[in-house]
Design goal:
The complex is a heterotrimer of chains A (about 230), B (about 270) and C (about 220). Chain A is mainly α and about 230 residues long. In chain A, helix 2 packs across helix 5 and helix 3 packs across helix 5. The model of chain A has no long low-confidence stretch (mean pLDDT about 90). Chain B is built from ten helices and twelve strands. Chain C is mainly alpha-helical. Chains in contact: A-B, A-C, B-C.
């Protein structure tokens, strides 16, 4: 096969590729923050006395972890409008990614919390701290420190996994190259370039996340809020 | 057998497999034309895009159906070879051909200048027009009315190329990777209107009366044709001959009329 | 005339499940062989061999599955002229993906075996290869089972991405059925349930195996 590579056409479109990459990062960060909030609420609900609430969280986690992200996105974008819940593609993509990540993050936080010795919460209770304060200071923050590597790994997975949201017409890097290749027919060059950009983004994200871990947990006093930012 | 033998064995097997792969590549690159291979294997692989009625659909039993499927079956029969339909999405029609997953694309591929730079078209075997379709309540009578509306288009289609050209500023185009997704978005109200072939628009409207869809305006007209990879001159000549014969004997006209409900227009040749 | 989502449409989805399972099986077996090779390369004494394994894992784990699939789908033909049918092309892409994941996971389990055992083997003048084969691997396999079963779930779900390039498996079948029934509210949840029925038992098994391993060791 006489295929002549023409990477010039990729270079001509560098601004659109860059914009796509920025959209991918924005979408991933938004999904990460939302998903982490969701997971925090689920983790709190998991410790509640209500059996219904606990089963609901368990059900959510199991459904999310045992069905594909793509099908979850289809349900949010194509099925929910039938129930009157309508989001545009970019919103549906962020919500889909967040709900998906939330399921995994709930599990990661649970593992983190289970690693906290029970004696610590008991000690805090004995000190007369309120339930919410115990949860926040004695359970959630130390658990976040343990859970951080797992959550950071999940962020990379969101970044890479977000490539499938082009299937519901959301705009990010993969959908940008889909459009570019369908008009220029230089599919290999564009997909190759996009893959390289994802590789760089994933590498950069790892460096940033490691840096945040150091800033948040290792340096001086353990200030844990940095995890979500 | 110790581990060293195992590892050595695996290395040799791997090297052998690589050599075989390279040899196949060599053989495919030099010796045989695609037509030779089709005749030797007694099998032709043709793209099938089944989310675009009436060109390609699925019948009640999940079997592939539609005018392009019928055309593919006819050409394979004429060639005297077995037909393997390779399912693709609309944007994958040309990539599937270029990557060699299919020998021939017959999936209502309109002849356009951009595509002609990448693949070689045979003589056309049908004609279509691209329209904007939307629910009756949406006031979209002309291209200018699309401003501020969300218009769904499928990547890698005629409408993707044609609709934005005549559109005013401020249209929110929403691009999908699959005609199925574009239609679903239209029916679920995720887009205000969508571009697709006039036949597909009628078919979707008819199959889904509740949505109250109607054709708003015509964007482009085009002839669609089988396409081959640019080097496959022999195959293209064969397909041209078969298209010619099936035009003469009325088979193509019958297929067109059966699926679209319209008379086959006069078809020019390339 | 739109048709409803009835028995024949459901059967269409059920029949598509076999393609999801077949693709998963091929990728799992191919990925298992490849993964073992990658894991063994990682514990090699030669740094060049280790580098190849680590670069392979890093590349495949830092790029989206969808693009690996698209590049595997088109890239092979473009780069080498080898033209594969859709089935082998998709199977190859998922095999490479699975090999990277399993290679990394199994490397982890091999490294989890205490260093002292290698040293003990060396002290007994056993060749490195024998220590690996007789001492390390049998223990590593036991640790590797839960994560491997867990990956099977990830692989089943991952095959849904093939729908985007038009490969007919369960998710694509769902799209096709939505396109003829126009009932996404029913079809996609049914698709989700079918995936759940495939994945959940495996997830439960993986969790159970993991707990058994944890208690067994402690």
């Amino acid at each position: 096969m006489h295929y002549v590579f023409q990477f010039g056409v990729v270079w001509d479109n560098w601004q659109r590729l860059l914009q796509g990459a920025v959209e991918t990062v924005q979408m991933s960060v938004a999904a990460f923050v939302l998903g982490l909030l969701l997971a925090g609420m689920c983790t709190y609900a998991r410790g509640s006395r209500s059996r219904v609430l606990r089963s609901a969280v368990r059900g959510y986690v199991e459904v999310i972890r045992n069905t594909p992200l793509l099908v979850q996105l289809f349900i949010i974008y194509f099925s929910l409008p039938g129930l009157g819940v309508r989001m545009d593609a970019d919103e549906a993509a962020v919500v889909g990614l967040a709900v998906n990540f939330g399921g995994y993050a709930t599990e990661i936080l649970r593992a983190g919390i289970e690693a906290i010795p029970r004696g610590q919460t008991e000690a805090a209770t004995a000190l007369g701290l309120r339930r919410w304060r115990i949860f926040r200071h004695v359970v959630l923050f130390p658990a976040l420190r343990i859970a951080y590597p797992g959550l950071a790994g999940q962020f990379i997975l969101i970044l890479l996994g977000s490539s499938v949201v082009s299937a519901i017409s959301a705009e990010e890097l993969t959908s940008t190259v889909n459009t570019l290749q369908s008009t220029t027919f230089r599919s290999f060059e564009f997909y190759f370039a996009a893959t390289a950009i994802y590789l760089v983004m994933a590498g950069a994200a790892r460096v940033v996340l490691d840096g945040l871990f150091w800033l948040g947990f290792e340096r001086g006093r353990p200030k844990l809020g940095a995890a979500g930012r | 057998m110790n581990r060293r033998d195992l590892v050595a064995g695996k290395t040799i097997a791997g090297a052998a497999a690589l050599t075989a792969l390279a040899a196949t590549a060599q053989a495919q690159a030099t010796a045989k034309t695609t037509l030779d291979r089709i005749l030797a294997d007694k099998k032709i692989r043709i793209t099938a895009e089944v989310t675009s009625p009436p060109f390609g659909t699925l019948d009640r039993n999940g079997q592939l159906d539609g005018s392009e499927i019928a055309t593919s079956r006819q050409l394979a029969k004429d060639l005297g070879v077995e037909l393997e339909l390779v399912q693709v999405t609309a944007p994958q029609r040309i990539p599937a051909l270029l990557a060699g997953r299919a020998d021939l694309a017959i999936s209502s591929l309109s002849i356009t200048l951009d595509r002609a730079k990448t693949v070689a078209f045979c003589n056309p075997h049908g004609a279509l027009s691209t329209v904007i379709t939307a629910p009756k309540g949406k006031p979209i009578a002309a291209p200018a009315d699309m401003a501020g509306k969300r218009i769904g288009l499928t990547r890698g289609t005629l409408e993707e190329a044609a609709v934005p050209k005549g559109a005013p500023a401020g249209v929110n185009f929403v691009f999908f990777d699959d005609i199925a997704a574009t239609i679903q978005a239209l029916l679920s109200g995720q887009v205000d209107g969508a571009g697709m072939s006039a036949f597909a628009a009628s078919s979707v409207a008819e199959r889904n009366p509740g949505a109250g869809l109607e054709k708003k305006f015509t964007v482009a007209r085009a002839y669609y044709a089988p396409a081959v990879r640019q080097a496959d001159h022999e195959l293209r000549q064969w397909i041209n001959t078969l298209v010619f014969l099936n035009k003469q004997n009325g088979v193509l006209a019958d297929i067109y009329e059966k699926y679209t409900g319209e008379k086959l227009p006069d078809l020019p040749v390339i | 005339m739109s048709r409803d989502f009835e028995w024949p449409e459901f059967v269409f989805l059920l029949l598509a499940v076999r393609w999801t399972l077949a693709l998963t099986a091929v990728a799992f077996i191919g990925g298992g062989v490849g993964g073992l090779a990658v894991a063994l390369m990682w514990v090699s004494q030669f740094c060049a061999v280790r580098a190849v394994a680590s670069v392979y894992i890093a590349l495949l784990q830092s790029t989206p599955l969808l693009l690996e699939l698209v590049l595997g789908f088109d890239g092979l033909a473009v780069l080498t002229g080898v033209r594969l049918d859709p089935w082998p092309a998709v199977a190859l892409a998922f095999t490479l993906y699975a090999a990277a994941f399993l290679g990394d996971a199994w490397r982890g389990t091999i490294e989890a075996i205490p260093r002292a055992q290698w040293e003990a083997g060396a002290a007994l003048a056993l060749p490195r290869r024998h220590v690996l084969q007789l001492v390390v691997l049998p223990q590593a396999v036991r640790i590797a089972i839960p994560v491997t079963v867990g990956f099977l779930v990830q692989l089943i779900k991952g095959t849904s991405v093939a729908a985007i390039v038009g490969f007919v498996e369960l998710t694509r079948a769902g799209q096709l059925m939505v396109n003829v029934t126009f009932q996404p509210m029913i079809v996609y949840p049914v698709v989700a349930v079918l995936y759940f029925l495939m994945c959940w038992p495996l997830s439960l098994a993986a969790g159970r195996l993991e707990r058994r391993l944890a208690t067994g060791r402690g």
